[in-house]
Amino acid sequence: MKKALIFDTYDDYNIRIQYIKSALERNGYETMIYFADFDHVKKQYYTKKREDVHYIHVSEYQKNLSYARIASHMKFAKACVEEAEKHADVSLIYVMVPPNSMVKQFALYKRKHENVKVWFDVLDMWPESLPVSDKIKKLGSCIFNQWAKLRNRYLNDCDLVSFECNLFRDTLKQYVDAKKQITIYLSQDNHMIDTYDSLKEQINFLYCGSINHIIDIDKIVSILKDTMLLKKVHLDIIGDGENKDAFLQQLDIHHIPYTYHGLVYDEEKKRNIYRHCHFGFNIMKDSVYVGLTMKSLDYLSYGLPMINNIKGDSLSLVEKEKIGLNVNDALIQNITSLSEEEYFMMKENVKKTFLAYFDRHCIDQQLDQSIKELED
């Protein structure tokens, strides 16, 4: 049996790795998965580990922007290559990016092992997506440029580069041979809800996801305030994060009706919340460099149109496929003047778009095709 190794600094099992693993196994590969043993979100070592994953020990850190974090990632990248060297019979290696050090280390590995297929999968952009001001980026431009070069200089030393979105692909395509590039969106289970409440009297909004420092609370509150001048509104909130209290405080100050549900893991409870909502907020600060968000996939999987300010793929899909409304000067008028018939068509468009771009069947086809092309 052919052997494949999967290396990922983070635990991206649910959003990517499980699909990669299944595709490799469908195509006849014995597959081994390696994660770091440190939870980069909670900043602590994992106490509960996945049974089908091998964990590589890394050094801990507490600050996202720190030398300790860079050192931890570099240690992981080197340890991953050391592990790969132990498998003389490996045929294919899948590498999640970032961190950028993974690209350099496995590019050097590939130069020594030309017969092994190496696949880079770019799910984020460092330092481009760091939520820091332009002033800080300018002051640290020398460091940031060197950081990006760890990825850019070595990205073409592989057999395939997949991108989470076209925004990332367009940014990095100059560094990779065109024949090696493919965009493979993240996938989500289908939770489609076809029914919805009337929006004649009240418009129900939803925010689902992490309430952190990169969501634009002021913009969300402003949209709700302006909409309230013309129609009743209500906001449901699913999630938690360091900015939760600040978010709820702003809603209270402006007397915006809301229900805070906290973290919701029960699928039936989540469906009951989604069932009554008309739009999901896909709103982040302008400095955030992403083309798609996990919350947008969540909204689409339930058939919920979006209020969107994310550029790149999200802006294009909302505009082209008519699956919501992009933030612009006419947004409030567009929200409040929407007829039942227009909203029904928008819901239908969401369903078609999800099935065409993000459904498991669609992603599996892309993965199978990519693996076959790697083997040719």
**Order of H and E elements:** EHEEEEHEHEHHEHEEHEHEHEHEHEHHH
- Helix tally? 14
- C-alpha Rg (nearest Å): 22 Å
Number of domains: 2
CATH H level of the largest domain: which superfamily?
A: Glycogen Phosphorylase B
Strand order of the largest sheet: 5-2-1-6-7-8-9
What is the β-strand count? 15
> What's the CATH topology label of the largest domain?
Rossmann fold
How far from one another are the termini? 17 Å
Q: What value does the average pLDDT take?
A: 95
Structural class: alpha/beta
Name the beta content range: 15-25%
In CATH terms, what is the architecture of the largest domain?
3-Layer(aba) Sandwich
| CATH class identity of the largest domain | Alpha Beta
What percentage of residues falls in helices of 4 or more residues?
A: 40-55%
Assembly of the depicted chains:
single chain
Q: Give the uncertain stretches in residue-range form.
A: none
Task: Describe, in short, the structure shown.
This protein folds into two domains: 2-187 and 359-375, 3-Layer(aba) Sandwich (Rossmann fold), CATH 3.40.50.2000; 202-357, Glycogen Phosphorylase B (Rossmann fold, 3-Layer(aba) Sandwich).
Main features:
376 residues, alpha/beta, Rossmann fold, 2 domains, seven-stranded parallel sheet, six-stranded parallel sheet, globular
